[in-house]
Amino acid sequence: MNVKVIVLGVACLVPCALVAQNTIRDQVYFGAMGGVATLSGDASAVITPTAASTSSYDPSNGAAASVFAGTHIRNYVSLQADYVWNRNDVVLTSSVNGPGGSSFYHLPESVVQNAFLGNALIYFQKRGSRLRPYLSLGGGAVLIHSRLSGGAIVSGNPALPPASSHHASIAQRTSVGLDVRLGDSWYFRYSFGETIARNTFGDQLSPPEHRVAKNFQSLFGIYFRL
């Protein structure tokens, strides 16, 4: 009798374990995207009766790429980990005029950002739908590396930013996107996101900028479900 009970129990548990394994596999996904990154620019001016100082940073669009992994925990909710890379060229400009004379600089700079983020995705269509728009909220950390490139113009004796710098910052990210089911396990994804982090560009200027720096990314890619 005991042997029959054991056999019956195993016969019941094995299908349940296989179903659970298939369910877990069905929930996990991996993907990659590429696109364009746009940094926010800014300018500042300090005017006194005896001196005037102005500064600005002017970024150009650059390349962006992302890899991600996630899991569908509910019909309308997913959790996701992202690594996002982007590179942009930025021009730093400063002009100082005062009783001691005048000075200015025009410095091209290359900036690379590496972000490590965790996000929660809220979908507006249930799993299995062909089109699934979503809203994503999350945060993490971003490593920002900048270095001065060629073509600098310097006059007088201004306080120049360092030739190379490394900074780490807490980051907040929001994005909207759309998943399109291509097949049983493959999906196309479009995402437009905004990452807010420390303004390392403005910190280097004279006078400095202290407004929040924004990194906008428009990404296209694919992911597959296990």
Structure report:
This protein is mostly beta strands. It has a single domain (30-225), classed as Porin. It contains 2 helices and 11 strands. The radius of gyration is 25 Å and the shape is elongated.
Produce the secondary structure layout.
Layout: H1 2-27, E1 28-39, E2 42-47, E3 52-59, E4 62-72, E5 77-98, E6 101-123, E7 131-148, E8 153-155, E9 164-181, E10 186-197, H2 200-203, E11 213-225
Tell me briefly what this model is.
This protein is mainly β and 226 residues long. It has one domain: Beta Barrel (Porin).
Q: What is the spatial order of strands in the main beta sheet?
A: 1-4-5-6-7-9-10-11
- The overall pLDDT, averaged over residues, is 85
Count of distinct structural domains: 1
Largest sheet: 8 strands, antiparallel, barrel
Overall CATH architecture? Beta Barrel
Fraction in beta strands: over 45%
What is the SS-derived class?
A: mainly beta
CA radius of gyration: 25 Å
How many strand segments?
A: 11
Distance between the termini: 41 Å
CATH fold name, please? Porin
**Total number of helical segments?**
2
Order of helices and strands: HEEEEEEEEEEHE
Fraction in helix? 10-25%
Query: What gross morphology would you assign?
Result: elongated
Descriptive key words:
8-stranded antiparallel barrel, mainly beta, 226 residues, elongated, 2 helices, Porin
